[in-house]
Amino acid sequence: MATVTLKNVPKELLAALKERAAQNRRSLNQEALLRLESSLEAPRPSSADKVKVMRRIQRRLAGVKPLTDAFLDRAKGEGRS
Prior knowledge:
With 81 residues, the chain is an all-alpha fold. The protein has one domain (11-77). Helix content is 60%, strand content 0%. The chain has helices at residues 11-23, 28-40, 47-60, 69-77.
């Protein structure tokens, strides 16, 4: 594995990182790696983005009849003879 050295880390940032590491019972290195990895993960869509997607789907399905129990029962029975 590679080694990275950080320069000019503000004292407040280092103190906060050390505090979080202690709270989470991790070494400073483990805490720093975990936080770096999580910052580079794909962003999670916000609730507003999820609602937009659901509304778009709802509009696309507006003209489609809902599935009924009778329809599903017939579909399950097709080809079973």
